[in-house]
Backbone:
């Protein structure tokens, strides 16, 4: 795991335009900061999707086309703290559906928390946590032959480039069967005055979240980053529809990383690209789905039309 982390960091920091992989945001501290981000007034995404889940619960369940007499698996990719999903779990359980809930997350820590909280709030729901990254778990999905509903919520797909998203959804489809469903939560393209503050909250939590990556490299890879010498710098352009986060070097500096045995040089104002958050519309999603086995069958949006949960069916 550390080996992989060091390797990705070295590859990213050796590029002419430096990058770091966003999946390493989520250590214990990063998980907690992301929970705080979701509570920031500027971060509309979670509230919008929560609105969809609370006001359209019955329609969402209907769209799964599940049969109350047939057991199915409800698999959630990147479950996080599962607040939205608990609405759904509660309704499915009271209505007598037969299912297991399989949350998949890269953070062992948030999976444990989720399991504990669900044991208390919804003791009748059977929870089977799976620890790993999305690509790793694709294979294990195939081992069961029960009908499946996959949840990929919260704009988690937004961290993938279109090419990666397309490849991922292709592979996910290949591991599912005809009629299986995917509920995909996407943030919709909208103007910069709404999107940008969501990635640059006034309290500075998103900044801390981004800079936490430097702390993590210091702690786990023996790096010598001075977190005070880097500045959180997000960008968003509506034409492209992608919010991008950068860490900007406040001065000319060098950083050593024990785990890679190398020194990396930063110019004043040089940026490390740490994350993309892709925003969607029907066209973009259709293009991404073109080479996959999924088709869009329904779209659920919040009142402001900021966010959409797309119900995709495996053909
Ligand atoms: C967890 C990927 C949905 O991109 O909106 C929030 C992560 N990064 N603020 C997003 C994030 C900065 C978030 N996702």
Residues:
């Amino acid at each position: 795991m550390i080996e992989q982390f060091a390797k990705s960091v070295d590859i990213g920091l050796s590029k002419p335009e430096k990058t770091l992989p966003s999946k390493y945001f989520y250590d214990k501290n990063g998980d907690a900061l992301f929970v705080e981000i979701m509570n920031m007034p500027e971060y509309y995404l979670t509230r919008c999707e929560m609105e969809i889940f609370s006001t359209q619960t019955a329609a969402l369940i209907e769209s799964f086309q599940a049969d109350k007499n047939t057991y199915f698996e409800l698999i959630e990719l990147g479950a996080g703290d599962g607040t939205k999903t608990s609405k759904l779990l509660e309704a499915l359980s009271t209505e007598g559906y037969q299912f297991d809930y399989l949350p998949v997350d890269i953070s062992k820590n948030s999976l444990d928390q989720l399991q504990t909280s669900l044991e208390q709030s919804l003791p009748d729901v059977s929870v089977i946590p799976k620890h790993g990254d999305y690509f790793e778990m694709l294979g294990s999905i195939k081992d069961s032959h029960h009908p499946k509903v996959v949840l990929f919520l919260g704009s988690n797909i937004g961290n993938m480039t279109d090419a990666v998203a397309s490849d991922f959804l292709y592979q996910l489809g290949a591991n599912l069967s005809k009629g299986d469903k995917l509920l995909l939560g996407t943030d919709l393209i909208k103007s910069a005055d709404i999107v940008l503050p969501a990635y640059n909250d006034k309290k500075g939590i998103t900044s801390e979240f981004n800079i936490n990556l430097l702390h993590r490299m210091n702690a786990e890879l023996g790096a010598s980053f001075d977190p005070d010498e880097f500045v959180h710098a997000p960008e968003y352009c509506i034409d492209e529809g992608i919010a991008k986060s950068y860490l900007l070097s406040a001065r000319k500096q060098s950083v050593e990383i024990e785990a890679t045995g190398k020194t990396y040089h930063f110019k004043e104002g040089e940026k490390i690209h740490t994350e993309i958050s892709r925003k969607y519309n029907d066209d973009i999603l259709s293009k991404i789905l073109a080479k996959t086995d999924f088709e869009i069958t329904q779209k659920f949006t919040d009142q402001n039309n900021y966010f959409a949960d797309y119900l995709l069916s495996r053909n």
